[in-house]
Amino acid sequence: MATNGERRSVMAGRQGMISQVRNAIKILNLWSYIGITLDFRWIEPATTAEQDQRAAETIRQFTFGWFAHPIFSKSGDYPRIMRSRIDAISKLQHFPRSRLPSFTKDEVEMIKGSADFLGLNHYTTSLASFKESKVTPQPSFSEDMGGVLKQKSDWPKSNSTWLRVVPWGFRKALNWVKDAYNNPLVIVTENGISLEALKTLELHRWLPQSLASSNSEGQM
């Protein structure tokens, strides 16, 4: 059976999206723009192998598309790959229905296009590798995605174990959003690096690369 945490996470995601839209509708007359802010760690394929390429895109959809696709895509609703994988795995785990709740048609239409802009938090990049594993009775987000993430040891470190400095991932994330969601208005709400103290040399080394990534040719 699904754990309480798993059920709460999925249901909270669905209910949170619906609540956001309903609240937005109530205050439309008070504000000019209403948006949503999402974190997007760029997911790069670990190799050029087709399986790793597919795994990277699947993980992007599971981690970012989970909330972005219902709002910013033309079709609305959850990403197809997310729906198909969780539906199939839920069946193999003998659940009476999919662990991914379904929106009604009215909810899909209400949520779709409900944000005027996308607030984007971006800090780092990970490499995705395909992982074939047997379906276990205990639900697993990693198993649902079908891939594993890692980072290169030679990528510059920060004061956070999960944050490696990968400026080129910023540009790839922006371009992916542009192509996937028809060039929405994007406001970068968070970006940076955690340091033990202000290290001028490291900032001077990192900041120009990050700025170049966000202002290079092909910008949104």
Automatic annotation (TrEMBL):
Gene3D superfamilies assigned to the protein according to its UniProt record, in alphabetical order: Glycosidases (3.20.20.80)
GO molecular function terms listed in the Swiss-Prot or TrEMBL record: beta-glucosidase activity
UniProt key word Hydrolase: yes
One of the protein's GO biological processes: carbohydrate metabolic process
Transferase among keywords: no
A Pfam family it matches: Glyco_hydro_1
Name the record gives this protein: beta-glucosidase
Organism the protein comes from: Leptosia nina
